[in-house]
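Bench notes, afternoon.
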Amino acid sequence: MSGEKSDFILKRLRSQGFKTYLVGGAVRDMLLQRKPGDVDILTQASIPEIQAVFSDQKVRIVGKTFPVCIINGIEVSSGRAGGDAADFPESDLAGRDFTINAMALDPVSKKIIDPFNGRKDIEDRTIRFTKDPLKRIEEDPVRMVRACRFLAMMKGSFSLSTLKALYACRDLLGKGVAKERIGHETLKAMALDKPSLFFRSLQTTGLLSHIFPSLDRCVDLDGGPHHQEMVFEHCMLVGDALPARLPVLRLAGFLHDAGKFDAAIPENGNLSFVGHENYTDAVEKDLAGLRFSVQDRDYIMALIKTHMRPLTAETTPKAARRLLAVLDGQGLSYRDFMRMRIADKKGNLAKKPYTVSEIRVRLKKFLDEIHRSCAFNINDLDISGHEIAGLLNMSPSPEIGKIKDLLFEKVLDDPLLNRNDELKKLCLSFQIKK
């Protein structure tokens, strides 16, 4: 659909005599043989001229420093050097961030305009700033994070000038940068084949300490006697093992053991990390600083806090029900819990990953209890607070909530008790005991 929309825009602008090109990521992705993401169009027409040409379409203007038109969801930029510039589109391409993004495609001749050898850098898998790297970074420090994302996307390397500039300018990330943009770049990196390359390049350039200090401090932290790898390395392996289609879950995998730094205690010549899943303050602070939504933060915290919950071939039905109740209380599905457990085991070089049969056994533990129609939440009880109040001649009060908690505990032990008549008997027995 985006292809049809962009073709329409390109043809109409060119029919009005304006030089118009596909630019940036669309050209880069085509050369990388990747499915294009956002489609960007560059035209010699001015903003008022673009509005006039598309007066019959849905057009809105966004951006203050470099205003662009959004036409039917497609971004259309006006040449930054002016409508009649003789060196268009090269003049515009010169202001773009990286050589791999500073190319334009003529939609008619199919010729690629490449003034900064972006095609060569794509072939060499090299990330290089366009022209002066320090100036490009000063214009927008978030470009440093983008550089790391593109490196991970291309599984490439930085040019020497780019690497030096990133290291020299790393402290700029803490000065007046919209932190939510960094968070957005991080989530985009989670969709890549191997996001660990993103985190590793952040760490190498000194940027990780400005973005996820909770993770950066784990680089040289020994994994303890149950691991052969460092904590940072373990987190990288776990994150890569999680599915790209679930970016927030994947980010949780990269951060899940960051609390080990705070939990670490020397014990018999080794480090012990008892209760590390509860040391979440540092990670939560990082996520809040990057303006992640409360929903995403709560989800990541829940995954971290529950990832050590045991589930084995010997887990009893009662224990499985209690685990499902814990997950339900944290707003997690058993599927995400299992995904994290499988990835966590796979990322431990001292142990063998779960076999398919071992995974099936553990899943069956959950599914057997789910199919019993058990109560995994206090609201699943077959009795309401209003009924309890009437039965015990009580006014609405916190005491009713306590009774429901007691009932829920009984039902977790024996799911057959979750019938209205049985729950009423239990309520009366609680009253008698009082």
